[in-house]
Amino acid sequence: MDKNEFKRLMDGYLQGKLSTEKRELLQRWYDSFGESEVGVPGMEDQEGMTALKEELYGRIHGAIQPKKTPLRKITVFRWAAIAALFVLALGTMVWLYSHQNDKFGETSTHVVSAYHQIRTGIKQIKKVDLPDGSMLYVNANSTIRIREPLLANKREIFLDEGEVYFEVARDSLRPFIVHTPSLKMEVLGTAFNVKSYKTLDDVTIEVQHGKVRVSDSQRVLDELTAFKGLNYRKANGQTERISLNNDEVNAWTRGIVALQKADFNELAQTLYNLYGVRLEHGEGRTANHHYNLTIHADRSLEETMAIICGIHNTKYRRKDNVVTIYP
């Protein structure tokens, strides 16, 4: 539908002269762009959209202003039609504005207030290309929100749950900021990983190259450079510096998870991400064990559990999606 036809339909709607066929055409056109990611048909350029917006508002305003004529009854239907048209036009403009930078590519996203939200499930890893040239790899069972518009004075990502590896395009004028429920990371251009699952005691930040400034709500905690990391204990705010190998930071994006001194909760989260099973511990010391091992996503659960049990000479049993380790 082009602009001229759209305006003719609006005129007819205001004047109550649209046929049933035209009304259905208008309704089908309106319904068609509710889920679109390419823009409203017939209003692709900003200049045309602005001019059409002003004209529509003028026509709507003229339709609802009282005229200098003798008072007469206005039916409920007439007022409902005018209100519906106003909502239609306003909703169109809001939709256009909120989708101008909707170019997230191969992701499953939807608009929530002023954010794009991305969720992943069990065994899912999503790659997200941002309009500024940055790339995100979102690990399984994660939720992130991307503030819109991203191309403003700063670029903000909210990691509500899970793990994300960031490859940030350098932009000295617009810092790239990542928020977790307890921390803030600020960079200009770098590659780094943030792990912040609710089941884990720590938030872990690992830098592959560049520099990352880490802060909590009160102060700057550290500035991390290449192959350095930070463990932040959520319960008391204590931090621990860690050193990394070159291939450790984003190995999970290739299906390889390297665990170093991992406690039971971290091991359980890893197995849930990769296999969708819940790991539990039986009686004894199994809850206090720590693990150094590398888990490959292409191995079967049985192969992985044999390696895990071999570390502390334990056994396991499985019932449905629950795996229990016991002495």
How would you sum up this structure, described in words?
By secondary structure, the protein is α+β, with helices and mostly antiparallel strands. It has three domains: 3-98, no CATH class; 109-243, Jelly Rolls (Sandwich), CATH 2.60.120.1440; 255-326, Phage tail protein beta-alpha-beta fold, CATH 3.55.50. The protein is built from six helices and 19 strands. The protein has helices spanning 3-15, 20-32, 46-64, 76-98, 264-275, 301-312; strands spanning 109-112, 115-119, 126-129, 135-138, 143-147, 155-167, 176-179, 184-187, 191-196, 202-209, 212-215, 220-224, 228-233, 239-243, 256-262, 278-281, 291-296, 315-319, 322-326. The strands form three sheets. Strands 1, 2, 3, 4, 5, 6, 7, 8, 9, 10, 11, 12, 13 and 14 form a 14-stranded mixed sheet that branches. Strands 16-19-18 form a three-stranded mixed sheet. Strand 9 and strand 10 form a beta hairpin. The termini are far apart.
